[in-house]
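User: Please predict the structure of the protein below. I'd like the answer in structure-token form so I can feed it into my own downstream comparison script.

Assistant: Understood. Taking the following sequence of 368 residues as input:
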Amino acid sequence: MTPMTHASPYLQIRHISKCFGKVAALDDVSLDVREGEFLFLLGPSGCGKTTLLRIIAGLETPSAGQVIQAGVDVTRLPPSQRDFGIVFQSYALFPNLTVAQNIAYGLENQRLPRLQVQMRVAEMLQLVGLTGYEARYPAQLSGGQQQRVALARALAISPGLLLLDEPLSALDARVRSRLRLEVAALQRRLGVTTIMVTHDQEEALTMADRIVVMDHGRIAQIGAPREIYRAPATPFVADFVGLMNFLPGVMVEGRVAQVRCGGVTLQVPADAQGLPPGREVTVAIRPEDVRILRNGLDMVNVVETRVHEVEFLGPFQRLHLELAHQAGCRLGLTAYLEPDRQARPVYKGTELTVHLPVEALRVYPVAT
């Protein structure tokens, strides 16, 4: 047993692998989680995020690797001997028990005095904003209320670790948005180390301290939300988190790093200078970084485009632009256009000049 030091991570995932038959759900995953951190496991269905959460909880046994919590190796311990609370997507409330009885369930299993249990239940109800709902049954509650009860039940036992398995995905968009803020505020107020599984990028970006993006059983990138969004490490991360434009191109020789995309040559960041001429690459840029110019300016990466489609999205329009043609392959860009009453309307077929700022471009070598 390794003693927990002040600088040690609260939870250490060491070289975890998990195979179901010949299928590798997790492949050598290592991760440190800091005490009090709100960490998100983000990725598409089948990427291994839920399997990893279940291994942390002891609901699955890893094929290899270790799980160390608060300095203790818990890899082979059953769930009942681990210090965590868990909330599932389905809430998993007992339908025959009242709200108060559901919250008290874990406390009663600890054989605490009845008065202490009652006080803790009242505290939890106040914490999640459900005071006065003690005698109701789950069927008498809305989806959002049921999720709050599930959260209160998980927190009632004062766990060292809170595990959330897509807890908001079954709710409608408005309730999900509101509960998202409530859960994040509650986690920060309590300071409980929390790991949440989601496939919802917006959920992760708005709530997380750090995000772990997973792809085919491996970690693609770990970072703060802003880092994941602004500096995606791979095309997969760039495509999965937010909307991204991708332009196929080839490195060309020059004094500065340049890529030829169709009939256009773009100057790209200097960190691409090490790629040899002729190397196939993908140039990426976020739609909000595509600048629509009202008049010609003397700058690099100014491109003529034609509007292919216009989507009205309320506070802004999403423009689908044709950039260039090469060998019958159309290169396209998506850009956002905010309302401007002084500007001429933009319709399908409108010609627009756009600027692709060098600092907003990212270059990914195409795997050979």
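That's the full token string. Confidence is low (pLDDT under 50) at residues 1-6.
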